[in-house]
Design goal:
- The structure holds two protein chains of two kinds.
- By secondary structure, chain A is mostly helical.
- Chain A has a single domain, classed as ABC transporter involved in vitamin B12 uptake, BtuC.
- Chain A is built from twelve helices and two strands, in the order ααααβαβααααααα.
- A two-stranded antiparallel sheet of chain A has the order 1-2.
- The longest helix of chain A is centred in the N-terminal third of the chain and has 30 residues.
- Chain A is globular and about 60 Å long.
- Chain B is of the alpha/beta class.
- Chain B has three domains: about 240 residues, Rossmann fold (3-Layer(aba) Sandwich), CATH 3.40.50.300; about 170 residues, P-loop containing nucleotide triphosphate hydrolases (Rossmann fold, 3-Layer(aba) Sandwich); about 70 residues, no CATH class.
- In chain B, strand 17 and strand 18 form a beta hairpin.
- The radius of gyration of chain B is 24 Å and the shape is globular.
- Classes of the chains: A mainly alpha, B alpha/beta.
- The interface between A and B is medium-sized, with 24 and 31 residues.
């Protein structure tokens, strides 16, 4: 039983980490009124760039930085299309995903071929990691996991207590009103998209280097969409996002535990569960949603 | 006092091929209330948006306090001390009052200090007798409170020159008085106010000088004390003598055509919007529905026209119960509807005029046969409607959105009236129209009444209601506050009812 709890918690946190990282980025871009379904593609690119950097320079940190830089660039390009050129956000997002599918496969075959690279090393926290049952599951992780959990209160603080956070929340609700008080709507939206790209990038690098330490084609496999669902289910708020991420992670962890049992043949049911929960939650909480009023609409200055 | 706070010289603003302002000169003296008068589309808001930096570019020169300034964005305008309260409030409902106040302020530190901002804001509110709780969300404020918040927001940014764009459109008569008191208080301590309006009596009441814009050009600037009466201002605005009143014979009643009994319904958020409303309208009379926007008028109309299901009560049209019928069945009972928002409900903007005409009656024999539209007949008929109702359009194949607002409305009115309804529901029939078009549409509505139609007219313009209605029903928060005969209807009798006060 002790083993089960440890394994289950570990699996939950491992699955939840990329979701939480990417979803925190999405909280910012969604709040500013951008629907970024290109997150899936950015994460996939991040997964590849992470391994590429790690294999080139022999360090997982270099890989992570390359993934973050790649995410930032993709976020910037996404902003150029959707904010400056006012292209449809869904279409551009889908284009990103399809582009990343081909781009990562090509680069992988040219440069990596799924080679083993240096993964993220684990840093056990002294004393805490020696606690019974929970020590191993909670306090013996690579940096990105700690980062995800530390980022939650930080993001909350930025969003609700700072001037920049106020502007971000306002821009998604009524960009024109922001314009009338002298806020640069375009710069704000570029900023959040670059940030959400960086977060998706590091989330992607954790997918490829968190456990396996190699890139497999199409390995993100819907985690970007799930991050979007985490963001929505978490009601666009950093604190709820962590709960949503862990819940989705738990569903995933449960799936692997169930594979070995008599109902293992039906594990697809659990694949469906996070999305099902999201849809039900959206219906139930529709009236109290933090979804910004101008979500998905490009701003045009007259 | 005679010092000029603002001089705008030779301002021209073009949108693609359209010239919205041409060579406009405007001089505003320090401490005055200066009216900007003009019909819809005359370029009042455009001129002020240039001043406030809402556009990328303008031609001409702006001098503020004698200095030539280059205003490239609202940021520059705010820094100079210009504040603007837009016609559609620039507030964010999901944020709190104080968050809206400090939003975008330069002096904000990176970590917000809302507490001290709230103190400063509360003090400012007390000074002008307009306290608003800084910690509630803006969506909880009434429209009047939101306007006060917008004014305070501008003052918080140290605005010396305040632009108010059609500020009275959304207020009850009582709230208008409050606004005017506030304007006097502001000018007495040296602020300057630019008051955009097309309501002549308000301009006569509070303004010192008035600049009239006509077709994008400044037609005249006059001192209000030299103006004899409203008629003179109206002539300046339109460019010719205008009849300000509509002739109307006494009503000849011809039986109940629309009966509403104990009607209740909810709004989109599921809260009661119409509460136990009863009235009846006879053929040959106009019943005006009066009230500040958002007091259940829209929901009431939607119930009668079948667009919303009532929670209780009955509706009878020409003697048939229509409570549970859908819009098509309701239309068949002989009802015509000039909707409140012609763009949203009245027509399909990107489609042609003739297509818009066919959309409402396409199932009738003249319009189609076995599902195939008879375009030849429809086009001829569209042309007749356009001719009969003075719709100026190059052809009936023109895209509806390309027509001016007045012509769009005339087309909608024409389409609805030519169906010879027994009951006509006209919602804000003259909203956004110039005096000429307004008078035309009003006379058409009166003509319908004289022909025996039961007319229900919803408007927020008190003058229009008092002039045209035979009886006026006042709504407040979904309830009927009273029904007033035309002879007893004045601003003084209706105002308290609109504010929810019953003696």
């Amino acid at each position: 039983m002790v083993d089960f709890i440890t394994n289950f918690l570990s699996a939950d946190i491992r699955t939840a980490t990329p979701l939480i990282l990417a979803a925190l980025g999405l909280v910012f871009s969604e709040r500013a009124g951008i629907v970024n379904i290109g997150t899936e593609g950015i994460m996939l690119t991040g997964a590849l760039l992470g391994c590429l950097g790690s294999s080139l320079w022999g360090s997982s940190l270099a890989g992570a930085l390359l993934a973050i830089a790649g995410g930032a660039i993709m976020g910037f390009i996404f902003a150029f299309f959707t904010v400056s050129l006012r292209a449809n956000q869904i279409v551009v997002g889908m284009a990103f995903n399809i582009f990343a599918g081909g781009f990562t496969v090509t680069l992988n075959r040219l440069l990596l071929n799924g080679a083993k690279v240096a993964g993220f090393p684990k840093y056990p926290i002294p004393i805490l990691s020696k606690l019974p049952i929970f020590g191993e599951a909670l306090f013996n992780w690579p940096i990105p996991v700690y980062l995800a959990f530390i980022a939650v209160p930080l993001c909350w603080f930025v969003l609700y207590k700072t001037n920049s956070g106020l502007k971000i929340r306002a821009v998604g609700e009524n960009p024109k009103a922001c314009d009338t008080v002298g806020i640069n709507v375009f710069r704000n939206r570029y900023g959040v998209l670059v940030f959400s790209g960086m977060m998706a990038g590091i989330a992607g690098s954790f997918v490829s280097m968190g456990q396996l330490s190699s890139f497999t084609e199409g390995m993100v496999a819907g985690k970007g969409f799930m991050a979007l669902a985490v963001c929505v289910f978490g009601n666009y708020s950093p604190v709820s996002v962590i709960l949503a991420g862990l819940l989705f992670g738990a569903a995933d962890a449960l799936k692997y535990r169930l594979l070995t049992t008599s109902i293992g043949g039906y594990y697809q049911f659990l694949n469906m569960l996070p999305y099902f929960i999201t849809i039900v939650a959206l219906c139930v909480f529709a009236r109290r949603s933090n979804k910004p009023a101008s979500s998905g609409v490009a701003y045009r200055k007259e | 006092m005679a010092e000029n706070i603002l001089e705008m010289k030779n301002i021209t603003k073009r949108f693609a091929s359209v010239v919205a302002n041409e060579d406009v000169n405007l001089i505003i003296k320090k401490g005055e209330v200066h009216a900007l008068l003009g019909e819809n589309g005359a370029g009042k808001s455009t001129l002020m948006n240039c001043l406030y930096g809402m556009y990328d570019s303008y031609e001409g020169e702006i001098y503020f306090n004698g200095q030539l300034v280059n205003i490239q964005g609202p940021k520059n305008a705010i820094a100079l001390g210009i504040g603007m309260v837009h016609q559609h409030f620039m507030l964010i409902p999901a944020l709190t009052v104080i968050e809206n106040v400090v939003l975008g302020l330069k002096e904000n530190k990176n970590v917000l200090d809302l507490d001290s901002a709230a103190k400063k804001f509360t003090k400012l509110g007390e000074k002008y007798n307009m306290e608003i709780d800084p910690w509630i969300k803006v969506e909880q404020l009434s429209v009047g409170q939101q306007q006060r918040l917008e004014i305070l927001k501008a003052l918080y940014r140290n605005a010396k020159l305040l632009i108010l764009d059609e500020p009275t459109a959304v207020l009850t008569p009582g709230e208008v008085d409050g606004l005017f008191d506030m304007i006097s208080a502001l000018t007495s301590e040296g602020h300057t106010v630019i008051f955009i309006s097309h309501k002549l009596n308000e301009i006569m009441r509070i303004c010192d000088r008035c600049t009239v814009l006509r077709l994008g050009k400044a037609a005249a600037t006059v001192a209000i004390k030299d103006v004899k009466n409203r008629q003179e201002l109206a002539a300046l605005m339109v460019g010719r003598e205008v009849q300000l009143t509509t002739e109307k014979a006494p009503a000849r009643l011809r039986g109940e055509k629309l009966v509403v009994k104990n009607l209740s319904c909810n709004n989109d958020r599921g809260l009661p919007a119409v509460k136990n409303v009863s009235f009846e309208i006879h053929g040959g009379e106009i019943l005006g529905i009066c009230g500040v926007d958002g007091n259940g008028q829209s929901e009431l109309i939607h119930c009668i026209t079948g667009l919303r299901e009532p929670a209780g009560g009955q509706i009878y049209i020409n003697g048939t119960e229509s409570t549970k019928l859908n819009p098509r069945q309701v239309l068949k009972l002989g009802i015509s509807h000039i909707p409140e928002d012609r763009h949203k409900y009245g027509m399909v903007g990107p489609m042609e005029i003739d297509e818009n005409l066919a959309l409402i009656s396409y199932k009738e024999a003249l319009y189609s046969k076995k599902g195939i539209l008879k375009w030849k007949w429809i086009r001829n008929h569209s042309q007749e409607v356009c001719d009969d109702y003075n719709v100026k359009t190059p052809s009936v194949r023109e895209i509806a959105n390309n027509l001016s607002g007045g012509n769009q409305q005339k087309f909608v009115v024409g389409r609805e009236l030519e169906r010879a309804p027994g009951v006509l529901i006209a919602v804000h029939p003259s909203r956004g129209l110039d005096i000429g078009a307004t008078k035309y549409i009003q006379s058409q509505i009166v003509k319908q009444r004289d022909d025996g139609t039961a007319v229900m007219m919803v408007s927020t313009e008190l003058d229009e209601l008092i002039e045209l209605s035979d009886r006026i029903l006042v709504m407040f928060e979904g309830e009927v506050m009273g029904i007033v005969e035309q002879k007893d209807a004045t601003r003084e009798t209706l105002g308290p009812l609109m504010a929810g006060l019953k003696e």
